[in-house]
């Protein structure tokens, strides 16, 4: 099962001295699932069918944070929000139901604002367990070593074995 791939945007965020961000591009799938057909169950089914087990249903933290031990995927299933990706010097993104964001390890993210009903399904590649780092003194260089050791996913959570993540994360990125 593949979601819509035609709304894909690639975004790059680089090390700002506090947040490592990543040489790997962030993948933003606008309306990976049709807005009128999205539900938590439908998003979870999309991720599971493409080899990314759904892990949680919640919102996004309101503070800048990143993960050094896992790549993360966020699937918006209800409400809307404005997210800041790439840390304080990054860029703002408006998200709506059906949108999916694949965040490489090290890329800072936070919720700036949202509707009261905002809900996200989150997942990680099999075998990857997330940590939570806030860009505090002492997080690095251990976080950098963790990020360098994380294996690339075998599938794209939206496009499966032939999805864009496979091409954009494997070709010339490391």
Give an overview in words:
The protein is α+β, with helices and mostly antiparallel strands. The protein has one domain: Jelly Rolls. It has helices spanning 40-49, 142-149, 164-170, and strands at residues 8-13, 22-29, 54-58, 72-78, 81-85, 91-95, 100-103, 109-114, 119-123. The strands form 2 sheets. It has a 6-stranded antiparallel β-sheet. Strand 5 (81-85) and strand 6 form a beta hairpin. The protein is globular, with a radius of gyration of 15 Å.
Keywords:
single chain; 174 residues; alpha+beta; Jelly Rolls; 3-stranded antiparallel β-sheet
Give start-end ranges of low-pLDDT stretches.
none
| Element-level helix/strand string | EEHEEEEEEEHH
- By CATH's scheme, which homologous superfamily applies? Jelly Rolls
Helical run tally = 3
**Which CATH class is shown?**
Mainly Beta
Structurally, the number of domains stands at 1
Helix content: 10-25%
- Neighbour order of strands in the largest sheet: 1-2-7-4-9-3
- Would you tell me the overall average pLDDT? 95
The CATH architecture designation is Sandwich
Please state the overall shape, judged from the principal axes of the Cα atoms.
Answer: globular
**What structural class do you assign from the helix and strand content?**
alpha+beta
Strand fraction band? 25-35%
The number of E-state strands comes to 9
Could you give the distance between the termini?
29 Å
- Biggest sheet character: 6 strands, antiparallel
What's the CATH topology name?
Answer: Jelly Rolls
Rg calc:
15 Å
Q: Summary?
A:
The protein has 174 residues and is α+β, with helices and mostly antiparallel strands.
